[in-house]
Amino acid sequence: MQMEPRNTTEAALHDYKMGLGIFTEKMPELAQHYNTFTEYCFREGVLSKKEKQLIALGISLYSQDEYCIIYHTKGCLDEGCSEQEILEAVGVTAAFGGGAAMSQAVTLVQQSVQELNQLKQ
């Protein structure tokens, strides 16, 4: 039995997972190689998983990729980032990426943090 998403952030994560599942069915080898590559990139190394998620969130904001913004905001929270750490990272991105990055930071990132933290309660 599949539960209905409780908010827009959860709905976006659900849509991404569903799309990824369909893509994986149609292109299993490519999806497997892509997943192996990204898992390798995000493993603990000289940089921590937490630092890598903060970097990925910054790149997602800069490239205006809404699904990745939500996905990596969740990744930051899952790796123990505080809201303050996330906001500092998006501030650095806004300093580099200008208004477009800032507009996503003050809307989508803050909404995602709020909604994802509500799901934990």
TrEMBL record:
The protein's name in its UniProt record: Alkylhydroperoxidase
Family annotation (Pfam families): CMD
GO terms assigned for molecular function: peroxiredoxin activity
Native organism: Rossellomorea aquimaris
Keywords: Oxidoreductase, Peroxidase
Keyword ATP-binding: no
Lineage, highest ranks first: Bacteria, Bacillati, Bacillota, Bacilli, Bacillales
InterPro entries cross-referenced by the UniProt entry: AhpD-like, AhpD_core, CMD-like
SUPFAM superfamilies listed in its UniProt record: AhpD-like
Domain Carboxymuconolactone decarboxylase-like: 28-110
